[in-house]
């Protein structure tokens, strides 16, 4: 993916033909980090998101961003480290990307680079093969920052980014890669393959490998849970059960909690309920206070108190909130949903706290 900007600024970019694409990308990265709240990601594995400037890892990208902006807020360090990050692709968290010079917010990295160059006369290289991959974590799902497609894992999302940054194409299969190093690794995997998949452009060194690939990738034979009524297969047992109930009218599964009256339609939901509500399991500790939470998602919602991040935006007035529930309550204002009624005067309120304030001030009741 190439950055092609037409600059109206008086500043001219250094067109040094001796510099490699990597060096030019290093320079651009340094300018971006020095003038925004973006932060690089070293890796994502079972331990969480790794900081590109130190060995620390964090369970959520919001924790990593807070750490980076507080612990590595040094111009000298940023300039030095930016020159060390291009051994592999640079992964850049642009969640709530904001210009540090004028507080303008941006959804896309390209727009921000354009802004830095033309508005603030920043010295940036143009017409280069960009190796800086943007990522956003402003939705509950993991989505591409460019096309918004949803992915089940960060690894799959990172592989998908090759479709947007088609810097180095493969002559054998037409696939493209962000860096020449990734392309060379891909070419090695081609080997001398003569057995081409009938469903895609991949080639294999033996008939057995080709057939195994087709069964696993295209025919879904790695999905062990086959429907009792049709040929549909599922990776998850309970997804198979759900399919049989909804599509074929099989009797629904009812699992009753032995400690209370609640019922569930799958074992996973029942187990979660037992751990959360009866065993009071709280394994996720807040690093800023003493509160503990059952799930990482609950902890992430709580962290909005400490980080100030507002992930949920109103489509009507564009106000942002740290929690989805707060946004849902706010949306009642636009719908004029005054569900909280005063039993004395009949006045309605959008929020319960407003109703309580009214009851105390007008009717002297503490509710």
Automatic annotation (TrEMBL):
Q: Which GO terms describe its cellular component?
A: nucleus
Domain C2H2-type residues, every copy: 49-77, 142-169, 168-195, 195-223, 255-283, 284-311, 312-339, 340-367
Known InterPro entries for this protein?
Znf_C2H2_sf, Znf_C2H2_type
Q: Is the keyword Transcription assigned to this protein? A: no
Q: What UniProt keywords are attached to this protein's entry?
A: Metal-binding, Repeat, Zinc, Zinc-finger
UniProt-recorded Gene Ontology molecular function terms: DNA-binding transcription factor activity, RNA polymerase II-specific; RNA polymerase II transcription regulatory region sequence-specific DNA binding; zinc ion binding
Pfam families assigned: zf-C2H2
PROSITE patterns in UniProt: ZINC_FINGER_C2H2_1, ZINC_FINGER_C2H2_2
State what protein this is by name: C2H2-type domain-containing protein
**What is the organism of origin for this protein?**
Parnassius mnemosyne (clouded apollo)
Lineage per the UniProt record: Eukaryota, Metazoa, Ecdysozoa, Arthropoda, Hexapoda
């Amino acid at each position: 993916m190439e950055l092609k900007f037409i600059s109206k600024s008086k500043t001219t970019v250094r067109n040094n033909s001796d510099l490699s694409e990597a060096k030019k990308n290093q320079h651009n990265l340094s300018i971006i980090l020095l003038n925004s709240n973006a932060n690089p990601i070293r890796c994502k594995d079972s331990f969480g998101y790794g900081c590109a400037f130190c060995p620390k890892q964090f369970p959520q990208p919001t924790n990593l961003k807070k750490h980076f902006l507080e612990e590595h807020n040094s111009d000298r360090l940023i300039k030095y480290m930016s020159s060390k990050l291009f051994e592999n692709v640079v992964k850049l968290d642009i969640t709530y990307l904001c210009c540090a010079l004028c507080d303008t917010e941006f959804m896309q990295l390209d727009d921000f680079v354009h802004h830095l160059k033309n508005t603030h006369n920043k010295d940036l290289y143009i017409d280069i093969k960009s190796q800086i991959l943007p990522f956003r974590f402003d939705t509950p799902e993991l989505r591409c920052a460019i096309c918004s497609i949803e992915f089940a894992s960060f690894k799959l999302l990172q592989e998908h980014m090759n479709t947007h940054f088609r810097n180095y194409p493969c002559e054998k299969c037409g696939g493209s890669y962000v860096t020449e190093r990734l392309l060379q690794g891909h070419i090695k995997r081609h080997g001398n393959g003569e057995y081409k998949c009938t469903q895609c452009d991949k080639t294999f060194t033996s008939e057995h490998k080709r057939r195994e690939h087709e069964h696993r990738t295209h025919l879904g034979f790695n999905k062990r849970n086959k429907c009792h009524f049709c040929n549909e297969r599922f990776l998850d047992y309970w997804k198979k059960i759900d399919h049989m109930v909804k599509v074929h009218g099989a009797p629904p599964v009812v699992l009753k909690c032995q400690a209370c009256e609640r019922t569930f339609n799958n074992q996973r939901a029942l187990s979660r309920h037992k751990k959360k509500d009866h065993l009071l399991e709280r394994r996720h500790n807040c690093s800023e206070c003493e509160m503990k939470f059952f799930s990482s998602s609950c902890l992430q919602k709580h962290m909005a108190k400490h980080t100030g991040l507002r992930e949920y935006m109103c489509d009507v007035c564009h106000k942002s909130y740290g929690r989805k529930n707060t946004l849902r309550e706010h949306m009642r204002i636009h719908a004029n949903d005054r569900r909280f009624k005063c039993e004395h005067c009949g006045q309605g309120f959008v929020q319960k706290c407003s109703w309580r304030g009214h009851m105390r001030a007008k009717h002297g009741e503490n509710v």
